[in-house]
Amino acid sequence: MVLSAAGTLAIVAGTEAMAQGIDEGPVIVGAQRQQFRDLEVDRFESSLEFYSRYQNDKIKQNGTTTRTDSELLFRETVGISTRLFIGHRNLIDLTADASLGFEENIIDSDTQGIHDETESELFSQFDINALILGKGPAPLTVFARRYESLLDRAFAGSIDSETSEFGASVQLFSETVPTTLRYAHRIENLSDQLGIVDDDRVEDTISALSIWAPAPGHRVTLDYDLEFVDETRSNSQTNFTRHNGILTHEWGFGSKDEHDLRSTLLVREQTGDFEESTLRLIETLSLNHSDTLRTRYNLTVEDREVSGQVQRLAQGRATIRHELFDSLVTTASVGASRIDLPDDNFTRDEYDGEVGLEYTKRVPFGRLDASASLAGLRVDESERGSIIRIFDAPRVMSSGVPALLIGNTILEDSIVISDLSGSIFYVDGLDYSTSAFTDRVELLRIITGSIFENQTVLVDYSLGPEEAATIETYTAAFAARYTIDEGALTGFSPYAEYRDTSQTIDPIGSRLPIETTMLRYGADYRVGQLTFNVEQEERDSSVSPFDALRASVRYDQRLGLNSYLTMNLSHENFDFRNDRGEIKLNRVFAEGVQQLTSGLDLRARLLYRLEEDTVAGDTEGFEQAIELNWRKRQTTMFLSIRNSTLESDNAQTDSQTITFGLTRQF
Question: Per-domain residue ranges for the chain?
Answer without folding.
Answer: 1-33, 545-666
